[in-house]
Q: What sequence folds into this?
C-alpha cells in the first residue's frame, strides 16, 4: 500500500493535467491579443470555433488535450483583420471583368480583351481601369479594332475613373446610340458622322444600363473570388458598404452552405426598398452576417471635385462641389433610422458635407450616446466641427491609404490651409478615443497591411514622402492595429465576439511572417500573411 500511494497520486495528477479536450493549441507564438491591456501571450487554445484560453504553452498543454497543435515557430499572431469600409461584392464582380489598370497602350488593352474573351466565351465583355495619360499616344482610341474582333459580342471598357468609356458597335447598337446624338452632362463622340465608341460622363450610363443583371452563378463567383483574395491578406471580416437588400439572402445562403466563410457586416444602400425590407425584418444577425446599418451618400470624391466644400476649390474658382441629395432627404431618413434602432453610415468627404451631416446627426443623437453612427471617410473636417464627433459620439470611419493616394493632388484641390485638417486621423481618433480603419477597396488595394503602413508611416508604397505626409496625424502602431481589429469590430457592434484573441471570442486570427509591431517601417508593406483562420478553421496557408 505504501508503495502504491505515490503511484496513485502520480496517476491522479496525470489525469488532472489533461482536464479538457480542445480542437487546437497554437503555441510558440507572439500573440498580440489586443485585449484592453494590449497583453501579449505565447499560446492559446481553440475549441468549437472559439478561443478557449490564452496564456503560455506549458500551462495550457498541461490543462488541455488538443487534437491539433499549431507551432507558430516564433511568429507573430494577431486577431483576424477587419476592413471597416469596403465594397467586397463590387470588388468580386470586378475580378470577373477585364482588369486594365496599369496598361500602357491601346494594343496592350486589345490583347488583354482578347485573352479574356478566350477564357470567358459568353456575354458582355466589361473592362475597367485604362488611362490614356499612361500611354505614349495620349489620344482616346476608337472602336475599329474592337468591332473587327467582336462584331456581335458587346464590349465596354471604362476609363480608370469611370468618367469615360469606349464601347464597340455591338454595345452601341444594344443601347440605341446614334452618331451625333447629344446628352446633358455627357458626350457621345462622333467623328466625320461616325461613332468613335468614346462615351464621356453621362453618356457612359446609356450603355452600361443595358448590361444584363449578373446571373446567380456570377454573383456567387464574385463573392467567392473576393473571399479567396481577402483571405490571402488576412481579412476575416469585411464591411460591405451599400448593398441592395436582395444580396442579404444570397450572402446568407452562401454562408450557410459553408462556401462563403468570410464574416460580413452589411450596410444597405439608401433606397426605399432597403428601408422597407430592414425596418420590417429588424436586425439580421448570424455568426457570420450582421445587417443593421444603412449607407448614405452625402457627396462625391475630392479627386473629381465632387466633394462638397464650404469654400470653393483652390483649383476651380467658384466651384464648391455639391451634395448628392437635398439635405431634406437626410433630415427625413435620419429619424427613421434612429427610431428603428439602426446605424446610419454616411459617406461625407468635403467639409460642407461633413458639417451638414454632423448637424443632422446631432439633432437625432442629441448628446453622447452608444448608437455608433458613422461618417465614412470624414476626409476634410472644418476645425470648427471636429469636436462635434466627440460631443455626439459620431464615429469617423477612415481609410489611411486614401491619405497617401490623394496627397499628390489634395493640396491643389484644397490649398495649404484646408489641407491641414484633411486626413486628420489622429485628431479624429482623439474625439471618441477609438477609430475604425478600412480601405474602401476596390478604390484602394485590399491589403490591410498597407492600411497599417499608411496609418503609422503616412507614406505610399514608394516610401514617399520621406518624413510622412502630415505626420502629426500618424497613428501609433497600437492604435493602427486596434483600428483594424477591436475598434473595427466595435464600429460594427461586434467587439464582444471578435477583434481580439480572448476567451469566448471567435477564433479568427492571422499569422504573419514578420512582427508588424516591431519591424522597420519600410518593411511593413512587404510583410506577408502566412496563415489565416476563421472560426478555428484554416482558410489560407501561404506554404
Ligand atoms: Zn466606399
A:
Amino acid at each position: 500500500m505504501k508503495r502504491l500511494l505515490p503511484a496513485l497520486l502520480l496517476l491522479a495528477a496525470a489525469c488532472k493535467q489533461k482536464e479538457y479536450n480542445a480542437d487546437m493549441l497554437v503555441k510558440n507564438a507572439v500573440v498580440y491579443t489586443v485585449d484592453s491591456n494590449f497583453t501579449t501571450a505565447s499560446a492559446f487554445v481553440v475549441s468549437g470555433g472559439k478561443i478557449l484560453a490564452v496564456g503560455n504553452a506549458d500551462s495550457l498543454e498541461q490543462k488541455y488535450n488538443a487534437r491539433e497543435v499549431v507551432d507558430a515557430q516564433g511568429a507573430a499572431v494577431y486577431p483576424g483583420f477587419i476592413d471597416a469600409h469596403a465594397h467586397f461584392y463590387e470588388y468580386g464582380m470586378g475580378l470577373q471583368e477585364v482588369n486594365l489598370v496599369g496598361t500602357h497602350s491601346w494594343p496592350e488593352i486589345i490583347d488583354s480583351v482578347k485573352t479574356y474573351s478566350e477564357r470567358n466565351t459568353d456575354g458582355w465583355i466589361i473592362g475597367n481601369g485604362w488611362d490614356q495619360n499612361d500611354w505614349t499616344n495620349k489620344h482616346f482610341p476608337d472602336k475599329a479594332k474592337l468591332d473587327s474582333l467582336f462584331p456581335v459580342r458587346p464590349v465596354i471598357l471604362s476609363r480608370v475613373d469611370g468618367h469615360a468609356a469606349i464601347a464597340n458597335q455591338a454595345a452601341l447598337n444594344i443601347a440605341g446610340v446614334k452618331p451625333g446624338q447629344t446628352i446633358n452632362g455627357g458626350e457621345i463622340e462622333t467623328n466625320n458622322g461616325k461613332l468613335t465608341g468614346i462615351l464621356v460622363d453621362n453618356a457612359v450610363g446609356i450603355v452600361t444600363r443595358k448590361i444584363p443583371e449578373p446571373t446567380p452563378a456570377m454573383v456567387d463567383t464574385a463573392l467567392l473570388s473576393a473571399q479567396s483574395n481577402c483571405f490571402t491578406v488576412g481579412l476575416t471580416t469585411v464591411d460591405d458598404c451599400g448593398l441592395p437588400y436582395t444580396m442579404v439572402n444570397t450572402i446568407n445562403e452562401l454562408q450557410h452552405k459553408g462556401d462563403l466563410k468570410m464574416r460580413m457586416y452589411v450596410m444597405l444602400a439608401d433606397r426605399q426598398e432597403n428601408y422597407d425590407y430592414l425596418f420590417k425584418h429588424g436586425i439580421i444577425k448570424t455568426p457570420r452576417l450582421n445587417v443593421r446599418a444603412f449607407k448614405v451618400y452625402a457627396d462625391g470624391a475630392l479627386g473629381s471635385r465632387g466633394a462638397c466644400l464650404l469654400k470653393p476649390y483652390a483649383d476651380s474658382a467658384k466651384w464648391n462641389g455639391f451634395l448628392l441629395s437635398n439635405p431634406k432627404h437626410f433630415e427625413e431618413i435620419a429619424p427613421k433610422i434612429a427610431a428603428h434602432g439602426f446605424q446610419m453610415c454616411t459617406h461625407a468627404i468635403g467639409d460642407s458635407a461633413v458639417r451638414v451631416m454632423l448637424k443632422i446627426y446631432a439633432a437625432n443623437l442629441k448628446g453622447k450616446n452608444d448608437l455608433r453612427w458613422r461618417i465614412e471617410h470624414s476626409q476634410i473636417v472644418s476645425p470648427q466641427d471636429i469636436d462635434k464627433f466627440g460631443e455626439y459620439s459620431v464615429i469617423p470611419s477612415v481609410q489611411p491609404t486614401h491619405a497617401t493616394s490623394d496627397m499628390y493632388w489634395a493640396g491643389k484641390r484644397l490649398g495649404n490651409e484646408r489641407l491641414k485638417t484633411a486626413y486628420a486621423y489622429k485628431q479624429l481618433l482623439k474625439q471618441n478615443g477609438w477609430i475604425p480603419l478600412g480601405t474602401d477597396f476596390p478604390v484602394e488595394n485590399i491589403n490591410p497591411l498597407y492600411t497599417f503602413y499608411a496609418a503609422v508611416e503616412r507614406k505610399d508604397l514608394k516610401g514617399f514622402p520621406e518624413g510622412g505626409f502630415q505626420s502629426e496625424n500618424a497613428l501609433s502602431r497600437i492604435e493602427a492595429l486596434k483600428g483594424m481589429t477591436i475598434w473595427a469590430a466595435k464600429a460594427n457592434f461586434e467587439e464582444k465576439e471578435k477583434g481580439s484573441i480572448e476567451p469566448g471570442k471567435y477564433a479568427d486570427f492571422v499569422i504573419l511572417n514578420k512582427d508588424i509591431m516591431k519591424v522597420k517601417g519600410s518593411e511593413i508593406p512587404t510583410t506577408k500573411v502566412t496563415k489565416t483562420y476563421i472560426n478555428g478553421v484554416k482558410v489560407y496557408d501561404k506554404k
Notes: The longest helix spans residues 216-232. The mean pLDDT is 94. The chain is about 35% helix and 25% strand.
